[in-house]
User: What shape does this take?
Amino acid sequence: MRKKLREVKTAVSEMFELPKDIMLNLPRISMIGNNQMLVENHRGVIEYTPEKIRLNSTIGVIRVEGEDMDLKNIAADDVMITGQIKRVEF
Assistant: This one.
């Protein structure tokens, strides 16, 4: 049932040229170099250390690895990660 609903939402999104991140509530990730990363539409912080940050999302866990990482501007639906980002994994 969920898969069918997702397929319908995807089709509607493509038909009306609407952003998929809004229609499907997908995470949106914006990076500035390897020093700053904004994750929108996250579902919460799972793990937070200076070397690893894990965020829950509708598509699964987003894992960010690096050095001297810090969480800035944590809000209900977005979070800013700063530090030296070396790897992003879904």
User: Anything to note?
Assistant: The chain has one domain: 25-89. The domain at 25-89 is CATH 2.60.40.2000 (Immunoglobulin-like). The helical segments are 2-15, 20-23.
